[in-house]
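#onboarding

Welcome to the new folks! Below is a worked example of what a typical request in this channel looks like: someone posts a single protein sequence, and someone else replies with the predicted structure as tokens. Don't worry about understanding the tokens yet, we'll cover that in week two.

Example request:
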Amino acid sequence: MTSNEITVSTAMLLVPNEINSEQEQSLGNTETNTPCILQTFDQSNIQPTYSVNATNKYEEVGLILNNWITSLSVAFGWIDEFDKIIARYAKHFKLLKVFQGHSDNVRSAKFSPDGSTIVSASFDNTVRIWNVASGKEIQKFMGHSRWVNDAQFSPDGKMIISSSYDTTIRLWDVASALEVKVLTGHSSVVNTVQFSADGSTLVSGSEDKTIRLWDLQSGKQLNILRGHTQTVSHVQFSPDGQTIVSCSYDATICIWDLKSGRQLHILRGHQNAVLHAQPSPDCAYIVSCSGDKTIRIWDIATKKDSKKTGRTFKYLPDGRSIVSCSNDKTIRWWDVKSGKIIQKLNAHSAYISQVDISPRGDKILSSSNDNMIGLWG
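Example response:
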């Protein structure tokens, strides 16, 4: 063992099982450029020891404490000096604040670009903005005639886009809380909508099985992407702006060329509806989660995947870990490389619909069917 390698005997490791089914083995095909399953992580198997490489003593102490706290569920308030050590060396999320005001399920809650405010979307037909520091509601946007599924700030933080069961996408001015545009074209529920990095284009996904690109200034459709055979649950621009990643109730993830609209890859492996899919910050991986209760990490270069458990998730800014939520009312913080759970948070009294990460990666937002938004840090 080298001087900077540590072994933590109490850490939980998700151990890969061998792949036996012919179906899973046949998923990989280098000629068609489709992925295969690399390994399956199963929480029922626990490795008693876990080795990690730390770059310095500070990181070593943090790794030891993180694993010890997580595996033994050590609570704060045990010894004052111990609490100070944890605060100094180990990242450990705890509930900071609860935002209350929505009268129905909160479907989405996301940070503004500077992390100072939050936008939420709810089944009470409203979109709301909240101040992170005070926890108070700042603005309420009313205009959708049915449940609101998703809402997001523009890259400059001046506008908000929202999508709804009323089949529309609406653009709002943050300062005035006024509706600026209504985009129509989808023939069914619009589940998800997102700004491009430069804020000039929108991408949306709908229960009408289509993905649509929109010019924000004119409000006109630029393209309609067809290929999914069931509801499109989530769409996402890649960080490099070259592709779009979509997922669907048809249990697939699709990668599309942004300029041409051509379908580049179809990722198969999930056994149920895929609820969320997101590229890593460096575009080397795609993480997906499904109704089959797994999270899968797809290596785009090698066309392989591994899987873990969860429902929806969000990458931390460094791309080395993700935060997921589940219908078991928990939030889990995972190390991407090892598949290890760093921390498990008992979050809400009902199903958690979505999580988001602050721009600095130091806070988590959770939205839930208990009508509340949780802030963790």
